[in-house]
Amino acid sequence: MNKRVSELNAKLTDLQTELTKVQNRLPDEQAAVQESTTNSNNALEKSRKKAADAVGGDADDAHKAAKAAKKAASESGDAEDASHKLEKDQKKIKSLNSDIEKTQAKISKLQQKN
């Protein structure tokens, strides 16, 4: 029994360490989401303006509009990636918390048997 409790305590420590790591990343990831969303919105606005200029403009205006559209698509992709990474870590936190609770319950149950 004591060996099993020791194993569960080690597992609990590992889970808590992992949880701390993930939680410490969240502020940076949230800032990255905010920054990439702002960059995406700015690039989309610039793209809209260039597209409006291209409607009655020359080939150079069309080229600039295409370039701005490509940059906007790239910035939007970056924003999506940052958002997905944040979402993934938020799910990981929920999962780790659940695993921690289960492990603590197992430890309590084993200690009550003693």
Task: Describe the protein.
The protein has one domain (about 1-20, about 30-114). It starts with a helix and ends with a helix. By secondary structure, the chain is an all-alpha fold. The radius of gyration is 25 Å and the shape is rod-shaped. It contains two helices and no strands. It has helices at about 1-55, 60-114. The model has no long low-confidence stretch (mean pLDDT about 95).
Low-confidence stretches: none
Tell me the count of domains. 1
The number of distinct helices, counting runs of at least 4 residues, comes to: 2
Provide the residue-averaged pLDDT: 94
Q: Rg, please?
A: 25 Å
Largest sheet: none
> By helix and strand content, what is the structural category?
mainly alpha
Number of strands: 0
Order of helices and strands: HH
Give the % helix: over 70%
Any idea what the shape is?
Answer: rod-shaped
Alpha-carbon distance between the termini? 8 Å
